[in-house]
């Protein structure tokens, strides 16, 4: 699903008005009817409704919703903190609201409201042009302390759609009901406490116009052509389903390699190899009898460059440490290995600390840092909008694919396009979770044969196994090992 900026949304809005054609007040009615439907499907009319309406078109939407809910016998009260003069459609809807005469217009929001209430934020939407201050700021702080159900129309008031929000005076919504397309701000971790859950309501802006809008940002949806590449051909044998090697861990740290290898095996790889030091061979063989062992000549760390000529893909990095021999192995892989490289965790720190290696990164290498590791690569940033800019320039400069892990993990291609992943949850934030992602990436790359498409689908499947684990076992109980088991359902889900 494409993410558009405010300018593009306004243009799509205008295009629809002129070409459908539809009057702007009727478009407002259509948008608000979608809001009304969403609300009435979830809250019955035992809930009292308070609508905070600004004086622009976001306020206009709020007034339409107030009218429609009142006509369905909800008790609705409206507060107009910016007064009664505003945009044409706002003023027209204020007239219509007054005409039905069942909605109370309050001077102030009461000091107490019952928990069985809904507060609808229609103060500012996409027209926000500066931080909220003064009396309005006090109002937002007050409502943020109420325990009611809070719904923001289009955007939580105070939040900017396309850039970092400089102030914390922002309506804290439980639900944000946004029109037509998601906004970039919704993807940023620091904004989640204001957005709550977001839903995109189809207000029937011109589809073709929107399809033709150019955007570097989107939310991932499984692509059926790519998904079909995962299907096994009837002539599949272990050799043509891909060969992957995991180079991870070291003495007393083989868990990372085992988790990655298991995830890889359960994601369809044909042959999995694990490079281990001599002391660790038994552990790996006991844990994954399916794995071939590549024996490193070092006793405690991994550092031998072995024969990887038949390997389609190598995962290098999880818990591998920072020994000099390991660094040399990484350098040799960057220089000589001809297959697909997936670099994670300590590999990324090694790159950051030995920056000359960055110039050796083969085109299309997949890197999977979390924010801490990514900052080591690109320097500090103070919000996710800055992170996204750094991500783009890093990928474009080095011609690599980076998965920046977090809430809505961002997968960036070498051309600067960014796809945000919608699956996953906080229960996945446990040691070992990233190792699984490496395993999934390695398993599906040989069939998909494109770094960006592989990364998007692997991150999606990883999150989906996390979501299934959460649903069945709960956020606290779930573990990376449980997630590996749930890969079964995750693959089935995307196959159907
Ligand atoms: N996009 C669509 O397809 C549709 C959008 N609708 C709704 O319209 C709003 C956008 O309306 P707009 O009138 O452009 O902006 P706002 O209502 O958000 O506010 C504009 C108003 O507020 C002033 N202002 C901005 N920031 C501040 C501030 N910090 N303090 C005080 N005043 C401020 C600004 O100058 C303007 O005067 C969109 O979000 C949707 O809800 C349509 O109804 C349906 C189609
Ligand atoms: K709003």
Automatic annotation (TrEMBL):
Keywords: ATP-binding, Isomerase, Lyase, Metal-binding, Multifunctional enzyme, NAD, NADP, Nucleotide-binding, Potassium
Binding positions (AMP): 405-409, 434
EC number: 4.2.1.136, 5.1.99.6
Subunit structure: Homotetramer.
Top-level taxon of origin: Bacteria
Domain YjeF N-terminal: from-to ranges: 9-211
Comment on bound cofactor: Binds 1 potassium ion per subunit.
A single GO BP: nicotinamide nucleotide metabolic process
Cofactor(s) needed: K(+); Mg(2+)
The species this protein was found in: Marivirga arenosa
A GO molecular function held by the record: ADP-dependent NAD(P)H-hydrate dehydratase activity
Phylogenetic lineage: Bacteria, Pseudomonadati, Bacteroidota, Cytophagia, Cytophagales
Ranges where the YjeF C-terminal domain occurs: 221-494
UniProt keyword Nucleotide-binding present: yes
Positions of K(+) binding: 58, 121, 157
Protein name: Bifunctional NAD(P)H-hydrate repair enzyme
Family membership noted in the UniProt record: In the N-terminal section; belongs to the NnrE/AIBP family. Belongs to the NnrD/CARKD family.
């Amino acid at each position: 699903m494409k993410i558009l900026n405010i300018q593009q949304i306004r243009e799509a809005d205008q295009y629809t008005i002129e070409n459908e054609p539809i009057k702007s007040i009727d478009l407002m009615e259509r948008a608000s009817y979608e809001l009304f439907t969403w609300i009435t499907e979830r809250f019955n009319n035992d809930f009292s409704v308070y609508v905070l309406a600004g004086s622009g078109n976001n306020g206009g939407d709020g007034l339409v919703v107030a009218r429609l809910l009142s006509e369905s016998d909800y008790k609705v009260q409206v507060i107009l903190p910016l007064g009664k003069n505003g945009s044409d459609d706002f003023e027209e809807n204020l007239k219509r609201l007054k005409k039905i005469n069942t909605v109370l217009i309050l001077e102030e929001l009461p000091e107490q409201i019952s928990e069985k209430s809904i507060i609808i934020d229609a103060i500012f939407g996409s027209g926000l042009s500066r931080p909220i201050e003064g009396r309005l700021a006090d109002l937002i702080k007050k409502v943020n302390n109420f325990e009611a159900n809070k719904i923001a129309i289009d955007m939580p008031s105070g939040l900017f759609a396309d850039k970092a929000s400089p102030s914390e005076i922002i309506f804290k919504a439980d639900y944000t009901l946004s029109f037509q397309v998601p906004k970039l701000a919704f993807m940023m971790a620091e904004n989640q406490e204001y957005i709550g859950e977001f839903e995109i309501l189809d207000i029937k802006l011109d589809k073709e116009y929107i399809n033709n809008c150019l955007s570097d940002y989107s939310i991932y949806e499984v692509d059926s052509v790519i998904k079909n590449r995962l299907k096994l051909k009837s002539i599949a044998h272990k050799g043509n389903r891909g060969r992957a090697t995991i180079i991870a861990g070291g003495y007393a740290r083989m868990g990372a390699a085992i988790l990655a290898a298991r995830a890889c095996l359960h994601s369809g790889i044909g042959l999995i190899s694990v490079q281990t030091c001599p002391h660790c061979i038994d552990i790996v063989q006991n844990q994954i009898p399916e794995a071939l062992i590549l024996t490193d000549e070092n006793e405690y760390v991994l550092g031998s460059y072995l024969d990887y000529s038949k390997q389609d893909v190598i995962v290098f990095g999880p818990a591998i440490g920072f020994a000099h021999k390991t660094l040399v192995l990484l350098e040799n892989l960057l220089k000589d290995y001809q297959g697909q490289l997936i670099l994670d965790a300590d590999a990324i720190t090694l790159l950051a600390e030995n920056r000359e290696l960055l110039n050796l990164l083969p085109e299309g290498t997949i890197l999977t840092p979390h924010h801490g590791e990514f900052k080591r690569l690109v320097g500090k940033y103070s919000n996710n909008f800055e992170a996204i800019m750094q991500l783009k320039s890093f990928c474009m400069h080095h011609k690599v694919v980076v998965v920046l892990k977090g809430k809505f993990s961002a997968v960036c291609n070498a051309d600067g396009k960014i796809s945000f992943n919608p699956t996953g949850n906080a229960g996945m934030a446990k040691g070992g979770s990233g190792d699984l992602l490496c395993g999934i990436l390695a398993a599906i790359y040989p069939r998909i044969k494109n770094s960006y498409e592989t990364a998007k689908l692997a991150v999606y499947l990883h999150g989906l196994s996390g979501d299934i684990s959460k649903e069945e076992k709960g956020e606290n109980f779930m573990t990376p090992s449980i997630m590996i088991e749930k890969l079964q359902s995750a693959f089935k889900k995307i196959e159907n």
